[in-house]
Amino acid sequence: MKEDEFTKDENGEYLIPIDLPVDVIATLAIAAHEERMTLNEFLVTKITEYCKQVIEECRTKYNPNFGDDRTCNCGHPYYRHFDTYEEMFPCGCKYCECGTYTEPNLL
């Protein structure tokens, strides 16, 4: 969609077209009211939070194509930052206090 195809509210904020059953909209409206937000503000806030979680999960999830022997800032290989017994859960480095794999700055 092009920018001019989106609808804006009276404050100039973009409205997100969604098709939900009336009972779902009513439940969301109650939740928005409880948090003292408009329905649109509530939806944007919740969608933003969800997107941030998905992005973070993608960032920390094991990537078999990344290169297992690439070295982290801590000096240990990439694959050592994941638990091979727990479906490659991003557990942090197994040999030091490094919490997540960080690509070394080579500049």
Look at the helices and sheets and give the structural class. Answer: mainly alpha
**How many DSSP-defined strands?**
2
Radius of gyration: 21 Å
Portion in strands: under 5%
What shape does the CA trace take? elongated
By DSSP (H or I, 4+ residues per run), the number of helices equals 2
Number of domains: 2
Distance between the termini: 40 Å
**What's the arrangement of strands in the largest beta sheet?**
1-2
List keywords for this structure.
single chain; 107 residues; mainly alpha; 2 domains; elongated
Brief characterization of the structure:
The protein is mostly helical. 33% of the residues lie in helices and 4% in strands. A two-stranded antiparallel ribbon has the order 1-2.
Walk me through the structure.
The protein has helices spanning 22-34, 39-60, and strands spanning 7-8, 14-15. The protein has 107 residues and is mostly helical. It folds into two domains: 3-60; 63-107, no CATH class. It has a two-stranded antiparallel ribbon with strand order 1-2. Helix 1 (22-34) crosses helix 2.
Describe the protein's topology.
Layout (H helix, E strand, L loop, with lengths): L6 E2 L5 E2 L6 H13 L4 H22 L47
Antiparallel strand pairs: 1-2
Helix pairs in contact: 1-2
